[in-house]
Amino acid sequence: MTLPSHIAFILDGNRRWARQRGLTTFAGHRASYENFKIIADECFKRGIKIVSAYVFSTENWNRSAREVGYLMKLLKRALIEETKELGSKGIRIKVLGLPTKLDAEIKKLIKQTETQTAHNTKGTINLCLNYGGRAEIVETVKNIINKKIPIQKINEKTISDNLWTAGQQDPDFVIRTSGEMRLSGFLPWQSVYSELYFPTKMWPEFGVKDLDKALKEYSNRQRRFGGNG
């Protein structure tokens, strides 16, 4: 099989999965977190080098304060508990997104996590937190202006080198669960040539067999990048 080097997940359907089972929204988010740990680990076992996850968008602040508060607590738990475990496996953790609106404790944990795992080389997890694709492009433009790069030297590589994913390969494969067929602002610059896959299962029920089915589908596709074939 031809496997993607970088696979990106939109973890969609957590609340619907919970409602269908008569569970709380919080239970859906907990299940999402636990499932991502499993799927990310399986990706690395299969040789995939980068796993990105859309965990909290800039629009998610519009949810109830209670739900947002729970998600932030879940994030803190993840940063505390997973840094050591993933570090022991040689996995690097990066957090992509705007630091605005995040409380001081989360910012501190993010810095500690990224520093402690910075030299790990067996794989990378990108947690897209308070992330928005347009916001990333705006920040990229600001970076280029601040660096005073001459306009005649600005090209596609300049843009890529100033994104939050600078230095990483673009995602080969983007998976959004729950049957929704849109990217919702997820990695818009990076995903222009990504293969897209929209399974109907909700994220908490997207298992290892579903991952292998998706990877088989990816392997059967022909990536032409605008060329002949």
What does this structure look like?
The chain is α/β, with parallel strands linked by helices and 229 residues long. The chain has one domain (6-131, 169-220): Decaprenyl diphosphate synthase-like (Undecaprenyl pyrophosphate synthetase). It contains seven helices and six strands; from the N terminus they run E-H-H-E-H-E-H-E-H-H-E-E-H. Strands 3-4-2-1-5-6 form a six-stranded parallel β-sheet, with helices on both faces. Helix 1 (14-20) packs across helix 2, helix 2 (25-45) runs parallel beside helix 3 (65-88) and helix 3 runs parallel beside helix 4 (104-117). It is globular and about 60 Å long. The mean pLDDT is 95.
What tags apply to this protein structure?
229 residues, six-stranded parallel beta sheet, 7 helices, 43% helix, globular
H/I helix tally: 7
Remind me, CATH topology? Undecaprenyl pyrophosphate synthetase
At CATH level 2, the architecture is: 3-Layer(aba) Sandwich
Oligomeric category: single chain
* Unreliable runs: none
- Our measurement of the CA-to-CA distance between the termini, rounded to an integer number of angstroms, reads 20 Å
SS-based structural class? alpha/beta
Task: Return Rg in Å.
Answer: 18 Å
Number of domains: 1
Mean pLDDT over all positions: 95
Assign the CATH superfamily.
Decaprenyl diphosphate synthase-like
What topology, given as strand order, has the largest sheet?
A: 3-4-2-1-5-6
Total beta strands:
6
Instruction: Report the biggest beta sheet as strand number plus sense, adding barrel if it closes.
Output: 6 strands, parallel
Shape: globular
